[in-house]
Structure prediction request, 1366 residues.
Amino acid sequence: MIELIVNGTTHHVDIDPATPLLYVLRNDLALNGAKFGCGMGQCGACTVLVDDRPVFSCLYPVSSLGGRSVRTVEGLGTVEHPGPLQQAFIDAQAVQCGYCIAGMIMRAQALLEKVAHPSESEIRTHMNPNLCRCGTHMRILEAIRRVASTGQLHRATNERSTS
Amino acid sequence: MTVPPDMPASPGRRTFLAGTGLLVSFALFGSMRVRAGQENTLGATILNPKLPGDLKIEPMLDAWIKIDATGVTVCSGKVELGTGVRTALWQVAADQLALPLERFRFVTADTALTPDEGYTAGSHTMADGGTAIFHAASQVRQMLVDAAAKKLGARASELVLDNGIITAPDGRQLTYEDAATGVDLHRFAAETSPPADPSAYRYIGRSIPRVDIPAKVTGGAAYVQDMRPDGMHHARVVRPPNHGAVLLSADIARVARMPGVVRVIRDGNYLAVVAKGEWQAILAMRALQASARWQQMETFPDNAAIHAHLKTLPRLDYVTTRDRAGAVHQASPRPVALAPAPLDAPHIDHLSATKQYVLHGSIGPSCALAVWRDGMLTVWTHSQGVFPLRAGIAGLLGLPREQVRCVHVEGSGCYGHNGADDAAADAALIAHRMPGVPIRVQWMRDQEAGWEPLGPAMETALEVATSEDGELIAWRHALWSTPHNERITNPGRLLPAWLVSTPIAPAPPSPIPQPEGDADRNAVPIYRVPEVRVDMHFVTQMPFRTSAMRSLGAHINVVTIESMMDRLAERHGHDPVAYRIAQLSDPRAIAVIRRAASEFGWTTTAARLPNRGVGFAFARYKNLMGYCALALEVETDAEARSIRILRVVVAVDCGQIVNPDGLANQIEGGVVQSSSWTLFEQVQTGAVGVKSVDWQSYPILRFPQVPERIDVHLLDQPGEPFLGAAEIAQGPTAAALVSAIGQATGRAVLQLPVIPHLWPAPMPVGNDPHAPAQLSKRTLRA
Amino acid sequence: MIGWKRRLVVAAGLLVACALAFVAFAWQPALPRVSSPDIELTPGLIAQGRRVVELGDCAVCHSPKGHPAFSGGLGLKTPFGTIYTTNITSDGPTGIGSWSLAAFVRAMRHGVSRDGHLLYPAFPYIHYTKVTDEDLRAAYAYLMTRPAVRAPAPANDLPLPLRFRPALAFWNLLYLRPGAVPATDHSPLARGRYLVAGLGHCSSCHTALGLIGGESGEYLGGGDVDGWHAPSLTTLRDAPRPWTVGQLTDYLRTGMAGEHGAAAGPMRPVTDNLGEVAPDDVLAMATYLMSIQKGPSHRDPSPGPGAATSQLARGQALFEVSCAVCHGEASAMGTHIGRPPLQASSALAGPTPQNAIMTVFEGIPWPDRPVPAAYMPPFAGTLTDAQVTDLVVYLRSTTGQAPWPDVDSGVRKARKELSHD
Prediction:
């Protein structure tokens, strides 16, 4: 039995501990956000947060979690009550096919929690691990900038978790 | 995700086709004859050429709009590929029905429920699908109003429509559903519809937020990958190392004993494994792949020498001409066309361009779900064309079509013919052998890269004669390419059909005819030239499987044409923008050019900063669809071997705009994607076949390379027909980049992708004796 | 004089003499500023200078990512603290724009700045001193024609005693042998020796440093940098698949060796740089390096205990989850791109687990623009120390070589190294 804390809820799942987190999220917990894009850590479609840091869930063994908390895009908000980044993506219509977007949002969330007002160059560098094939980059950057300008996601005290 | 209840397919369509011998032809920008019984360029059969849009294909009103006690349902054969078109079509239906969006259902491509509109491709969706819905909805609304007038004893013109409720002057009301009782929508559409009142539009022309976005940003179920029916099992396929390889052995027995595995399938060279859990399926796939021994049967060319190689292969020559009256005529293909007489003119310019193979590179590898239950095989797929796919799968499995149903569910963006149909065939094939079990097939990244049909490598050669003052006299455009349209016209076009023990050969390749074009799309210049000839050397033998990729041949053809226009402008001492305008007659073309130039601040008199360049390009997609003019500025850094795209200004005219923000989104995406293709992308191939198997061996643009600014200006044409938009930016972006980089570096590079040709990467000098040997050893083991 | 007074005078005299000697060594005069370069800058000289600067790998330290070319600002983590590289663009106030050729040559040969202060030997002037006058002149011409960038170097982060620069004079006494050492002839071997010893400054990383940071280990016998191990360059034929001149040349130019794997860590920027260099020069370096091979040393540390089956099983399971997609037997990366199997990689074949551990932690980053290249995601944030230990032990066990001792302490040490980032 593996215990996972996902979006604030504790789950007990009967799976092999050497299973990538992505498949546990999608199949055992029926969460759609994190996606299979390459399984190689090259595209970021599977990006989720573990203790506030973005990780490739396709390469992350659930046995690594050890009680750390996982956040997926489902944990940031809902259609009825979207979180700030989700709302910004909707306002900017920052989606074409949308397949990469959940991963984009999670990676951006990590940056905006850590850095109150990142520069354009910081945003672009931070988002580098995530690919978009449709070319939605302009609007993704715009959505991130909008939230960055408010600084509302920034957490004043960052609890540095030991890896 | 629930599937809507089965409803009977429209029987009237087949009856119509069987009963009529009607032959109608009309001119379409030239001399194309369209006849009943003929297929359109998207694989659907035309029944009544006189009807607007895809009503030509499906003339029955109730195929498009169904009204019963449960409500109103609008059906479309076109699908959401990530272009926002589902929302745009919904907007059209809403305004023409005078119903709020949320008041009716909108169902897309399902072989059991919707019209067969062929493929969602070629930028035809709004032009054909939108037009059909526009008219069908308008005519149905009129029928409801007339029926309500009778029921309420009032005059039709006195009735008020609001929110699906029809109100008479005396206050009595009927819902649409009530008004529809007794009304038979099973009738042919009329050739004309009640006049539309654009001032009454609530949706058309407005940037309605896309209906699919909220779910996509909050983890709602949105893709075929998100489907999880009860009892679903996970399947993975094992592909050969390259095309034609023969399976010698594989350790089926050992893999069958792995945890969770319920079936291992071997059928000739076809290998697949099915397991209860997804990770179990992946581990079993790896074990099966590692144990497989293959014999390589074909030799594959190196992509560095591909253009020379293409010219040695069998081909058919298609010659297209445009006469002085502007009529475009494409001759029947010949093995070798007669070369034209040499040109004789004051000035003759030559120009040649090349492009390499390009991957669709869908961010989510192809996926499909299928179940064979109660004599019905249902497949959920992100294919662009569920109807041709259904026919192909039925043929592959030896089933009658009526026993196969294909339902479109979104996948990631495909940008043309990617692995979607093949993955659907995989799911169908496996499900057919495991009755009652829903089978989910997910391709892996390297399988998508290695087996998706590629965007063809091409070479162009252009020869243009001009007068002393720059007037265009003669225009000859030759090109070499493998097919751009290997769609599912027979089961043999599906990849699994080549691998099974009784393989089916693919139907012979056949290009999409002019004026839409194939590899020769957009090769006929829109500029005023009395003599135009296009020689398409259609290479019929494919070293690598190729098919449609967003804009087809237009990408490189527009680069060729626009680079020539730049050169001619310079030779004759004209500004490039002014020169283009002087050779055009179409006012809408001139308008987008002027708009882009003025918004950009185009000037040839300003001093150029070092390492900076500007470029301008224009094209009208297929010379029939959306107009796109584009100017951009780049800064190059030869030390860092990099290019920054500083700003891009685009002006587009797509006729009546349905969703302005949606259109701008598509144009921005097209600019960014085409930038990536043009600057960086090429599929590496060699002895082992396709060597670009992931994002490190096929790098694409990432955030640091994204342009700093893109401004899109929309020239709306209310009341004008919808023109296509999704592919119109690919060619102009590429052409403007080539031009700007040429100016910034002083070197005109017309071999795409530009950067590896401008600044070649260090190649191994071949002193490593182990590298090639290792590769050939591996191809046997794969 | 009374005895004790004499001793006092002698001691005071010695002290004064030492102080004077010290001042003589440590104090260097400021050389006058120039308003523009004081030699003729011809296109040919500038082009030659570009090649010299590429061979010297100056950009690796002076052109960090995100900074304009040659404007410095890269923090070098030394055992003594962090030193920031300086601005060597042609800017007057913050760069070397007001330096004469003589000032430039003095810096390169003697580690002395224009204004006389001594430079920290993180700048490898003990190697650049060997560069010929002609090459130095060309390098000067090239650097003085780079765009000026106004960027003062960040303050160094060193403990107080080490901020006393004149102390470096003693260091120089021990380790600096000033003077050009030109190639003896035009053969690739001689050219290669010149390049490796001088501009290439390979021993800055590939030779072990002593207590006070001087190269005191066996020349090119291996060293440590930023937590990575720069392997011995004199035992390349001892590798399970012996290196050849051709392989080494291709590796240095492309960052990939068909049988040994990809350049990682601090070596990656070096191979990026050497890709720009004339292939013949790289071939010369490889020719020279392969000519100084020693016989098998048998000085490997004594092997560690064999791993328990359970540890190997854990390691293998982790390999399936996190590594096999690219590094597994069935992976397309092996069959289609031609990547060598992990068992052949230098990181796994070497005497210590250091590089295997660092590669797992840091991965190999994307190049700064879309070109085909080796990439590996980092696993520092994904795998725990215990998991990395299990994985590395498992991977070593697949090579058929003796197990490493103390993998777990190597992992802890590397984790500490990372946390200083």
